[in-house]
Amino acid sequence: MKISERGQITVPKVLRNQFGLHKNVEVELIPIKNGILIQKHSRARHPIDLVMGILNRPSDTDSYIEEVRGR
Q1: Is-contact 40 27, C-beta < 8 A?
Q2: Is residue 6 part of a domain?
Q3: Is 7 domain-assigned?
Q4: Is the residue at 32 inside a domain?
Q5: How many domains does the chain fold into?
Q6: CA angle, residues 46, 43, 47, in degrees to nearest 5
Q7: pTM surpassing 0.85?
């Protein structure tokens, strides 16, 4: 594997799939004794966080439960 003129590398597809390194996943480069460790960014957002609030429902749970129960 070579580093491009712009400092880019290509992670082989087998490794990207194995470790979930897909498009827009942030990674960290961590210096270690014998090289560099590539690790998913520790502040990666959970998929649930990405859709939270998407329905623009009132945040009052009690009101929602009353509405669903027809009260």
Answers
A1: yes
A2: no
A3: no
A4: yes
A5: 1
A6: 10
A7: no
Q: Residue 24's domain spans which residues?
A: 13-69
Handedness of CA 21, 23, 24, 28 (dihedral sign): positive
- Whether 1 is covered by a domain: the verdict is no
Q: How far apart are CA 66 and CA 71, in angstroms?
A: 5
Query: pLDDT tens-digit profile of 5-27?
Result: 999 999 999 999 998 888 888 88
State the SS3 of the chain: CCCCCCCCCCCCHHHHHHHCCCCCCCEEEEEECCEEEEEECCCCCCHHHHHCCCCCCCCCHHHHHHHHHCC
